[in-house]
Amino acid sequence: MILLGIAMLVLALDQSTKFVVLHELRLNESIPLFQNMVYLTYRQNPGTAFGFMSDMESVVRIPFFVAITLATFAIVYTYQHFLPPENHLPRVGLGLVLGGALGNLLDRLLYGRVIDFIDLRWEDLEWYVFNVADTCVLMGLLILLMVYLRGQKSKAAEPG
Q: How far apart are CA 95 and CA 76, in angstroms?
């Protein structure tokens, strides 16, 4: 229930923020939130992270991303069955990953591309524009990595 609840919360938050951006900003419009650091910038990304695969034809790209999301769902669903019931943190991480993957998949199915709007800058440095779904996938993967590394450290400390 934790995994599914978090995934649905992420999906709702991701889609509601994208709804606001779609209805309040024009494509490529940018509004400073924290001058010279954080901007709200409406972009559309037909590819994946960092624009990878954005040149691929949509008849190939969209089914590919649907397959990747379905594979992610299958992996998350299978993996969570191997977790002890009291082990909640990995389920939180899995829920974040799943919710983010579903959020971006829904964009691809509805618009043929992902809606991005979080724009970080510092002086002359600019990062790629991203969204809530991307942020949640990254946070989920970091949680899973932390859980894994903590487990490896515990195993290394065991006598034997």
A: 8
